[in-house]
Amino acid sequence: MNIDGGILLLIQEYMRNAVCDVFFKGITHLGDAGIFWIVLTIVLLCFRQTRRAGIYSACALIGSLIVNNLILKNIVGRIRPYEVVEGLQCIVAPAHDASFPSGHTGASFASAVAIYRQIPKKFAVLFIVLAALIAFSRLYVGIHYPTDVLGGLVTGIGIGLIVNFIGDKVFAGMKAKTISEEQ
């Protein structure tokens, strides 16, 4: 916890400034309740060409909610860093749930990874970059420890990959069934 807290204090001391405060507060709020990723999922579901990406994203978001917010946060029960790291100032509203893992990071990477292979790479890379910015913003604003963010990153990527694996099997099976029915 000393290293975790020390990293947060270094960010606070050497990176925070008025411009970055506005930027990273805005970025962090994109992840509030998964709102950006939910809206993106709805948009993807609206178009036939991107519907599979929307389905994958929806499944990944639900998986992240279950694994990170309902299971891990309640099992680990880690206290937020601004409550225990002396001198750390949280620059957003305090959270009311446990700190580990970062739900913002988990949801962001779960959705971004789930849709990565389903949409053009120029957009997919932008979503990965946004997920990384949201993850870092959680450190910047002082609401998560680095290991919380790392935990969310690992679970998010894992959930995104699992959704891709299972989704590809399901869609391949549906396609095979359709082809055999047509013959």
Largest sheet features: none
Give the averaged pLDDT, no decimals. Answer: 94
Radius of gyration: 18 Å
- Secondary-structure element pattern, one letter each: HHHHHHHH
Q: Rough shape?
A: elongated
Low-confidence stretches: none
- Which structural class do you get from the secondary structure elements? mainly alpha
Which percent range fits the helix content?
A: over 70%
Share of β-strand residues: under 5%
Number of strands: 0
Task: Compute the number of helices.
Answer: 8
Report the span from N to C terminus: 62 Å
Describe the structure.
- By secondary structure, the protein is mainly alpha-helical.
- Helix content is 75%, strand content 0%.
- The protein contains eight helices and no strands.
- The protein has helices at 2-14, 18-30, 35-45, 51-76, 81-84, 103-116, 121-140, 146-182.
- It is elongated, with a radius of gyration of 18 Å.
Give a summary of the structure in a few sentences:
By secondary structure, this protein is mainly α. Helix content is 75%, strand content 0%.
How are the elements arranged and paired?
Elements: H1 2-14, H2 18-30, H3 35-45, H4 51-76, H5 81-84, H6 103-116, H7 121-140, H8 146-182
Helix pairs in contact: 2-7, 3-4, 4-6, 4-8, 6-7, 6-8, 7-8
Give a quick set of tags describing it.
183 residues, mainly alpha, 75% helix, elongated
